[in-house]
Design brief:
By secondary structure, the chain is of the alpha/beta class. It has one domain: L-arginine/glycine Amidinotransferase, Chain A. The chain contains seven helices and 15 strands. The strands form five sheets. It has a three-stranded mixed sheet with strand order 2-1-15, with helices on one face. It has a three-stranded mixed sheet with strand order 3-4-5, sandwiched between helices. A hairpin with a 2-residue loop joins strand 9 and strand 10. The radius of gyration is 17 Å and the shape is globular. The protein starts with a strand and ends with a strand. The protein binds arginine. The site of arginine (ARG) has 16 residues, from loops.
Length: 263
């Protein structure tokens, strides 16, 4: 099924600050390679038949490439992001302005939330992460705005600071996740809601393999997540590996670069 995505070219990408354990400002980043890898991701979506819109990158916002954090868009309603760290604060209004200009109904958030990084639509439910970035109160705000049941999930491992680094939605009622990234109670919630979920290995999660984008059939995921790719193939999905090694240095993968626009 064809999807519509919003992406932001990593023209000004850098690792200038560290707001997650993946980021090391003293390590070199190849900015040209980052753009080439990102371009390949964009073109991969287009080859799969999806529509990709682009938002203009803004100088001084090196993490703006991570479009998933820009908002959450469901039923044509855009729930704006309000970032936890000041370094990324200006991204929220930039994304919300773009969405408003492109026909989505904008809603400026009262509560701290980092968009689809922590808020994922999974069939009848909205799964929402908290613990590192998105505030628990934002889950109630999202539920009220979207009129869909929001399920709170507690993240416990700082390497998996956003929900989309620990869990991916594969189809309406199918997800894959890393149980260890969640609190005991949240693991039980996930097991109850998704008894047939695919459980990822620690190795695949450690290369952000779960930061994947599924259209229900093809699953775009980091090349390094070889075990997960074969698990997915075993379930009838078609893995589409992409190498985003430069963006991984900022703690991001394919899903982080991709905001789904649901009208
Ligand atoms: N450096 C960014 C940050 O820490 C990476 C964001 C990754 N995005 C995501 N959806 N997980 O905020």
């Amino acid at each position: 099924m064809s999807r519509r995505y919003l992406m932001c070219r990593p023209t000004f990408f850098a690792v200038d600050y560290a707001i997650n354990p993946w980021m090391d400002p003293s390590a070199p980043v190849d900015a040209d390679l980052a753009v080439a890898q990102w371009t390949h991701l964009r073109d991969t979506y287009r080859e799969l038949g999806h529509t990709v819109d682009e938002i203009e990158p803004i100088p001084g916002l090196p993490d703006m490439v991570f479009a998933a954090n820009g908002a959450t868009v469901v039923d044509g309603i855009a729930y704006g992001a309000q970032f936890a760290f000041p370094e990324r604060a200006a991204e929220g209004p930039a994304y919300l302005d773009w969405l408003a200009a492109h026909g989505f109904t904008p809603h400026a958030a009262k509560e701290i939330n980092e968009g689809e990084g922590d808020i994922l639509l999974a069939g009848r439910f909205v799964l929402a992460g908290t613990g590192f970035r998105t505030a628990h109160d934002a889950h109630a705000e999202a539920q009220e705005l979207f009129g869909r049941p929001v399920v709170t999930l507690q993240l416990v491992d700082p390497r998996f600071y956003h929900l989309d680094t620990a869990l991916t939605v594969l189809a309406e009622n199918q997800i894959a996740y890393l149980p260890e990234a969640f609190s005991e109670g949240s693991r039980r919630v996930l097991a109850r809601l998704f008894p047939d979920a695919l459980l990822a290995s620690a190795e695949d999660a450690a290369v952000l393999g779960l930061n994947a984008v599924s259209d229900g059939r093809h699953v775009v995921l980091p090349t390094q997540a070889v075990g997960l790719a074969s698990q997915l193939a075993g379930r009838g999905f078609q893995p589409v590996p992409v190498d985003l090694s430069e963006l991984l240095k900022a703690g991001g993968g394919p899903k982080c670069c991709t905001l789904e626009l649901r009208s």
